[in-house]
Write a structure and sequence with these properties.
Blueprint lengths: L2 E9 L23 H9 L5 H9 L2 E7 H8 L11 H12 L2 E4 L11 E3 L4 H10 L4 E5 L2 H9 L5 E7 L19 E8 L5 E7 L1
Parallel strand pairs: 1-5, 1-6, 2-3, 2-5, 3-4
Antiparallel strand pairs: 6-8, 7-8
């Protein structure tokens, strides 16, 4: 059996939108993009976050993406040099190798190698993937997809990198009406930067 793992960079007020860059996700007029990257550059002087992310990504045996995230990633990891130094090369090699399952109502074909469309019934397709032998299937992006998976009790673990920032606007991971879910705190790490890394697993 595989495991569905959600990994998010999240603010104190629950926002997960656009942490990586100013133009990553401007939907609904969001103009505070890049908050996580900016915070790390200013406060993570020991670069404590990098080895944590590297260790997590080493466990990824598949990726679960929505169309928008797929479009962004396929134009980056899908074309970058696998022999590049550091994280870029390492992640490019891994993301090219693992299967990528894409939830989309509009895409009909996928150009990035090892990519597969999930079809119209995404929860059923994900449930089937989860039931098969394997490792971690990493969910990236889309609060809508995460909510749909939670509604079908398909999420095994949340890894939340909590930033001591309040944005006051943006998409929230757990919005009003999110399904009731109970998890246990499996691990917590406080970084010198003030970021807290929490891992929650299903009971």
């Amino acid at each position: 059996m595989s495991r569905i793992v959600v990994q998010e960079f999240i603010t104190l007020d629950g926002v997960v939108q656009g942490g990586g860059g100013p133009d990553e996700d401007r939907e609904d007029g969001f103009d505070r993009g890049g908050w996580a990257m900016d915070y790390d550059q200013e406060y993570d002087k020991l670069d404590e976050g990098t080895p944590i992310i590297m260790e997590w990504e080493s466990r990824s045996e598949a990726l679960l993406l929505v169309r928008k995230t797929y479009d962004i990633w396929s134009r980056a990891w899908g074309v970058w040099d696998e022999n590049a130094d550091g994280l870029q090369g390492e992640f490019t090699r891994r993301y090219n190798r693992v299967p990528k399952y894409v939830a989309s109502r509009t895409l009909t074909e996928l150009g990035w190698k090892n990519s597969h469309l999930l079809g119209p019934d995404v929860p059923a397709a994900v449930a089937q993937l989860r039931a098969e032998p394997g490792g971690e299937i990493r969910v990236w992006g889309s609060t809508v997809l995460i909510r749909a998976l939670a509604e079908h009790d398909l999420i095994d673990e949340y890894r939340l990198v909590v930033y001591p920032i309040v944005l006051g606007a943006g998409k929230k991971l757990f919005s009003d009406g999110f399904p009731v879910s109970t998890f246990t705190l499996a691990d917590t790490r406080a970084l010198a930067s003030g970021v807290v890394v929490n891992t929650y697993r299903r009971r």
